[in-house]
Amino acid sequence: MRSILRLVALSLAFGPFACGVDERSVDTGNVVEPYGGDSPPGGNGMATVPNAPAPSSPNNESPSNESPSNAAPNGNNSEAPPVVQLPPAEPPTTPAEPDEVTNPEGGEMPAPPPEEPPVVAGPVVPPSDLPPAGEAGVPEPAGAAANLRVLDWAGFEAAISYTFDDSNQSQIDHYAELQALGVPLTFYLQTNKQQNMSPIWMQAVRDGHELGNHTQSHQSTGANIGADTDTATNFIQSRFGVTVYTMAAPNGSTAYSPIAQSRFLINRGVNDQRIAPNDNTDPFNLPCFIPPTNASTAMFNAKVDAIRNTGTWQTVLVHGFPGSNDGAFQPVDINQFTAGVRYAKGFGDVWIDTVVSVAAYWRAQKTFTSVTPVTANGATTWSWRLPDHFPPDQYLRVTVDGGTLRQGDASLAWDDHGYYEVSLDRGTLTLSP
User: Taking a C-beta distance cutoff of 8 angstroms, is the pair 390, 398 a contact?
Assistant: First the structure.
């Protein structure tokens, strides 16, 4: 009996070496570690590292040298391999504290990343890129959940869009003065002209201006005007990397109305009229004002006064400016024109923006106000389908007497300029007490 106890004591004292097995001789198989980047071709986002050491622990301590002494090769319980006699293992090193971890490539280890912010349940409705309208400091409505209203022109008194046709050289030559105005503009490119090779148009994209379609060949009619329009679109999209949402018909030809309807959100024509919220203006023959040759600032200012008095939208078409010998139709003096734009900008209550931005708001408002909402369990819901060829990331601004407005799981935030912003991409809005 004493002999047996003596053998047990010796076994415990010498550990696995008493049996002639070194822990390091156990094959732990393949270790799977996260793949540091995009998944490899045909993979699943993980990289297999043969016979790699175990990954570091979450607290950045060094991995232990210990392995289960009874583990079988390849992680199964098959018969143990022949015993291999190895010299005694070196004593294990003491794991370093987190602040003592060193970088194997030299230098100090980078600081651990900050903790992730808590996840907020439900989608977030981001703010729009629309400029703020009205004075700040308007309190959030606190009355009954009723009387939802869409604000005309995003909360501004009126709207105006300044457009330029034909890719004329004088527009390129005076781009610096146009850009200095600090307002978004729309350039309708006629794409069979050498001027389209100018780097100015790519700069215009970077500066936030719109590039629209004015066709390839500027034909008023013909059997191939649809293909000619598509050629221009393909050129603009491939060269400048933008999606074309609006066009301007050459010479205002109504032959382009059906072509535009199947391809674009808006087609600008030429007849001089103002556009009102929810009116019956044809979006595929949108009117505009073409100033006469050498038009004065007073003419441009009169258009601004008219839209502010009527709460409407005016588009303005300028072909070019004198001095570049580009044959621009009815050119106007650059200083007279820029003074007129500054006049409109000076009021602070006129929305000056591209055709696509104002047109998207105008058409979305008409779509929304035509919806019959559904009321159930005290909540009222509007659902809509946007017009064809509608740009993404557009918004409507609305107000109510009170209650809570939600899109999906997110409550809309009140903007103290006096409105909530509704994401049009979500296609639904609910008002509840």
Answer: no
CA distance 323 to 337: 15
Residue 320 near residue 308, CB atoms below 8 Å: no
Structure tokens at 118: 């808590």
Please check whether residue 253 is in contact with residue 294, taking contact to mean a CB–CB distance below 8 angstroms: no
Q: How far is CA 412 from the centre of its chain?
A: 19
pLDDT in tens, 243-286: 999 999 999 999 999 999 999 999 999 999 999 999 999 999 99
Q: Taking the alpha carbons of 261, 267, 272, 276 in that order, is the dihedral positive or negative?
A: positive
- What tens digit of pLDDT does each residue of 334-387 get? 999 999 999 999 999 999 999 999 999 999 999 999 999 999 999 999 999 999
- pTM across the whole model: 0.73
CATH 3.20.20.370 applies to domain 158-347: yes
What tokens appear for 20 in the block? 């002639």
Domain ranges for the chain: 122-156+359-433, 158-347
Q: Please give the angle made by the CA atoms of 21, 22 and 27, to the nearest 5 degrees.
A: 100
Q: HEC states along 197-249?
A: HCCHHHHHHHCCCEEEECCCCCCCCCCCHHHHHHHHHHHHHHHHCCCCCEEEC
Where does residue 109 rank: exposed (0-12), middle (13-18), buried (19+ CB within 10 A)?
A: middle
Q: Pick from 427, 321, 323: which is nearest to 382 by CA? A: 427
Distance in angstroms (rounded) separating the CA atoms of residues 30 and 52 = 7
- 116: exposed, middle or buried (C-beta count within 10 Å: 0-12, 13-18, 19+)? exposed
Q: Can you name the residues that pair with 164 across neighbouring β-strands?
A: 187, 318
Nearest to residue 314, comparing CAs of 341, 346, 281, 287? 287
